[in-house]
Amino acid sequence: MVPETNGGGEGGGTDGESAAVDQDGRVDTDRGVARNEDRPTPDGWTQGSVRANGIEVSYYRVGDRDGQPVVAAHGFYDDARCMRPVVDALAADGFDVVAYDARGHGHTDAPEAGYAIADRVADLVGVLDALDLADPVLYGHSMGGHTVATTAARQSERVRAVVMEDPAAMYGLPDEDPDAMAEYVREQVRAEHEKSLDELREQYVEEHPETADWLARADQCMSVHIENVPRQGYPPLAGVFPDVDAPALVLKRDPDAVEAEATERAPVRDRARDLDVAADLPDGRLVHVPDAGHAVVRDEPEVALAEVRAFLRRLDDGDW
Predict the structure, then answer these.
(1) Is the pLDDT confidence value at 41 over 50?
(2) Taking the model in full, what pTM does it have?
């Protein structure tokens, strides 16, 4: 385990790759920013790394170490720092919040293989073991939502509760060739690596000004090896939810809000389908957050965080 620091710390890696950044902040290799590059850390957060499932996993921690542990898993293309809105909110409420970088993202190792759901679950469980986090609440967005749901299903005795923010693969992935999807991801990653940090920030600053810098830095850090996530696939959560025994909350995008972006979608149908899948959670609830897109908390933080806090308050009050 690498001791936690208050930002800018250097951690060891095992993937053997090194990346450089030119004077404009552009990344010049497929790995993303090197693990020993400066790593700005949000105010109040500490940063460290642990050995988990055969790789070095970078994590951040903030909040009350005596509080209920919450472990946060970010979405595809992001890293832990992109979850700052929910992490800071829960830390302010007295939770002990750990947010980790998934393999191939942020400052966690990026091996060429090992991106199937079994690997992602083993990475998360390895973090729990390494940090001795007992009975945690698992929180995940998108890919991370899929990871925490599957972990809660396969390791039910270890999980206090689970929150899924617009989790990936509620009904499976689009019917597309996995290799074609992987190639699309590879091209996207390389295209982002061609941009400067300022150019990357500009992509996010209008819609998400408070997290634009962290989203841009995540783009710099991601590895092309994450192409193996869609190649390996996401088992549909419809087949996972019945085994999630822990209390569960699903925050979903507003189907009406995305209608303008995808006119072939049917909001009423999507809303009903979401509720139908979530009905298989033994002890769960699904909430469509008005006006929110895929990044539910970043889009509508007040409403989304109110739902999360109400859910966690019920846990604390012993209603579960």
Answers:
(1) yes
(2) 0.89
